[in-house]
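User: Can you help me understand a structure? I only have the sequence.
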Amino acid sequence: MDEKIIYHVLEIHAPRIRELVEKKKYHNSDDFVKTAIEVLLTWESAEPKECMKILRSLMPLSAQQKMFVNRDAKSASQFKHMMEDDMAPIDIPNQSISHDMIEYEEIAMQKKLADTNDDHKRLQENLENAIEYVCNLDVTKPNDVIPYDGYPLLSGFYSRILPVKIVLAVLADMLERSKSNAVKLQDLRVHAYDIAEEIAVILTRRENQYNIPRNEKKSTGLPKKGLYDKDEEKVAMAQKRFKDQYVGKVRRNRITKKIHFEGALSALGLVHAYYDEGVVWVSLDKLGVEFVKLENPILQGNYDGMALSNAESDYIIKWLIPQRELEKQFVDSCIELVKKYHDTPDKYSKKITDALDDMIRNISEQYVSEHPEVKNLYRLDVKSNDARRKISQWRFATMGRLAEMGIVKWKIDTSGDSVYVVRESR
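Assistant: Let's start by predicting it. Here is the structure, written out as tokens:
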């Protein structure tokens, strides 16, 4: 029988371990010891680099760790190479500051803006000037543009378009105030999140006051987690999710190793991201100019109607969705199926969500068979172990956007299932 191993914490180490536990870095002292052992055992294994994945789970870095990373270009490069996998956000060329330091700066900038709560009002007051300004811009494709990766769907993370419109309006406002044709990506991330958070507070308060059901909430997709939470880590993660998904980030594809600008703005063809002197800048595309021109109820302060105007919804369907080939197939087929399901309900032996999932699965399989290269490149294999979850996410996001645009009416029946009906008029 193997000898039982017992580790006695040295008294010199105990105070520091207790301090880390009190700061919620670890659940308890056993958690700390277990993590330490896992790191070293992995380091001593056949795949020592895997221990860095454990360290990544301990993010965010402390101030001292960030200082180490940013001490010089060599340290930052070595640390980043170990800590980031192929699909992790990358640093921009010729910049010694690490990605973690960039996020740390954003958090500091965000805290300063959080001291004011009238930025949405300022945006409203300047919106006409901003629209007039961007309409007169000479919109061209910049040099050194960072391309979109070509994913043929709108990500399931972009389950609503209102956050996109808010970010785009903030970009127009920043362009007008700076009298320029581009803004730094980092600045846009910070200011867009600030205003989106203010709008989220307003909408969430009204939804709670009037008991608005989840299928009718306009705050979906806006940053709410962490609003009233004193846990800085949760707040930082909420910020990062919104910024990465709805504003954008630069990432390296794990297969092609090519650099892309990802996020809803890029997926919808509304902006260009490009490098200039080692900094990522964002400018409007022609589609972005046309979309920002259209009036939006929420931005105008009308919180009782739809999240998007009819003109915006028509523009999204006609010009934005068609850029993503598979997404357009989903949208067109979902609308058609909902019409048929409503007109001839006896024809279907299953609930509408199951019928939609079956249709989406068939469309996806056909698309992959016609474009076999996308199966691994974009993880579009609908025969994988997580296929059901993936298909449900696609359906949920697609139908959520169609409901937001007022194209379908979404209800929750007494059994808790979603029911959809195509609106005859909007």
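Now, to help you interpret it: The first strand starts at residue 145 and ends at 146. Residues 170 and 191 are 7 Å apart (CA to CA). Let me know which part you'd like to focus on.
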